[in-house]
Design goal:
The protein has helices spanning about 1-50, 55-60, 60-95, and strands spanning about 100, 105-110, 125-130, 130-140, 145-155, 165-170, 175-180. By secondary structure, the protein is an alpha+beta fold. It folds into two domains: about 1-85; about 100-180, Immunoglobulin-like (Sandwich). The strands form two sheets. It has a four-stranded antiparallel beta sheet with strand order 1-2-7-6, with no helix packed on it. The longest helix has about 50 residues, at about 1-50. The protein is rod-shaped, with a radius of gyration of 46 Å. The termini are far apart.
């Protein structure tokens, strides 16, 4: 009987040990599954962040987007400022300034021919009853340099011009266009 009790105690201890080991086994398998799922998720998120960028990065550093926009704005302003300076430089180099002068009989327009190689054929004048378009072009070719100059200006006149009585004449370096009023 003693042997039966010992055997019974041994079976009970063995059963309790298997019972405890079963729970430990379940806990270890659950922990391993959780750890595997966590590592797989971490790996996928890390790969996505490296290939597509981290989608929450702009919320972590909102100032970065603002600074990037500010830099673009400053670059655009610098570009615009440089373009204005360049336009002023080009306008300063433009030697042709034409203003129609009005008297009792009509308008008189004087054009300096020096920028156009002193040749009135380099100037094109298109006259309509209330509008005058003037354009000119010249080119110079040196040994190592080639330059081209062109000019265009339009005038809308409040009075009507008699196109059939327009006179064009040259006096020295001036090309004079006389535009009489319509009767």
């Amino acid at each position: 009987m003693d042997e039966n009790n010992n055997r019974h105690d041994y079976d009970r201890e063995h059963h309790e040990l298997h019972h405890v080991l079963g729970w430990v086994k379940v806990l270890l398998i659950s922990f391993a599954a959780f750890l595997g799922a966590y590592l797989a998720t971490y790996y996928i998120v890390d790969q996505a962040r490296h290939t597509h960028g981290y989608p929450l990065a702009r919320f972590e550093r909102p100032n970065r987007d603002f600074m990037a926009q500010r830099k673009l704005y400053e670059d655009f302003n610098r570009f615009e400022r440089d373009a204005l300076i360049m336009d002023k430089e080009l306008m300063a180099k433009n030697p042709v300034k034409i203003k129609p002068l009005k008297d009792n009989e009509g308008y008189k327009i004087c054009i300096n021919l020096k920028p156009f190689d002193n040749n009135e054929k380099n100037i094109k004048v298109d006259i309509k009853p209330n509008r005058v378009n003037i354009s000119g072009q010249s080119s110079k070719v040196d040994k190592n340099n080639e330059s081209e100059f062109s000019f265009a200006q339009s005038f809308i006149l409040p009075e009507t011009i008699d196109v059939s009585k327009v006179k064009k004449e040259r006096k020295g370096h001036k090309y004079i266009i006389i535009l009489p009023f319509e009767d």
